[in-house]
Amino acid sequence: MTVTMPLVTDGPAARPVKVLVYSDDVDTREQVILALGRRPHPDLPELEYVEVATEPVVIQQMDAGHIDLAILDGEAAPAGGMGIARQLKDEIYRCPPLLVLTGRVQDNWLATWSRADAAVSHPLDPIELAEAVIRLLRPRVPAQA
User: Fold this and answer.
1) How far apart are CA 126 and CA 131, in angstroms?
2) Integer Cα distance of 40 and 15 in angstroms
3) At the fourth CATH level, which superfamily is domain 52-145?
């Protein structure tokens, strides 16, 4: 069983937010990273990306417990992000938030089945993606004094 820890955003223990980006397509991973940048909102710490192209590495990274948010490509092959999301929600206690990228808006119901916390459809809109990520990360970031 994996337990995730809350984010530490100030003081000597401050660390960037680790975001796992899973897709078998390097261009999709690059689009996500470019859309979000290093800091999608001033209230959030900087993002550090972990790029992953295969399901076993996703599971390994998530089991390690150092990922704060996972963005999973629902169109990836052979293992799609929606199936991986459902598995992670079943297997990880206090699973970090999961955002699934769907092939089209009509597929967002599948993201609900997968128990993903948010879904954004292709083609990726950088503003929509950033807003979804901010919505998912804000509750995990302690209020600044």
Assistant:
1) 9
2) 16
3) Response regulator (3.40.50.2300)
Q: pLDDT tens, 11-46?
A: 434 589 999 999 999 999 999 999 999 999 998 999
pTM of the model: 0.88
Domain ranges in the chain are 52-145
Quick count: other Cβ atoms within 10 Å of Cβ 82? 26
Angle between helices 126-137 and 26-36 (to 10 degrees): 70
Beta carbons within 8 Å of 49's beta carbon, 6+ residues apart: 18, 19, 20, 21, 33
Least confident segment among 21-25, 84-88, 95-99, 138-142: 138-142
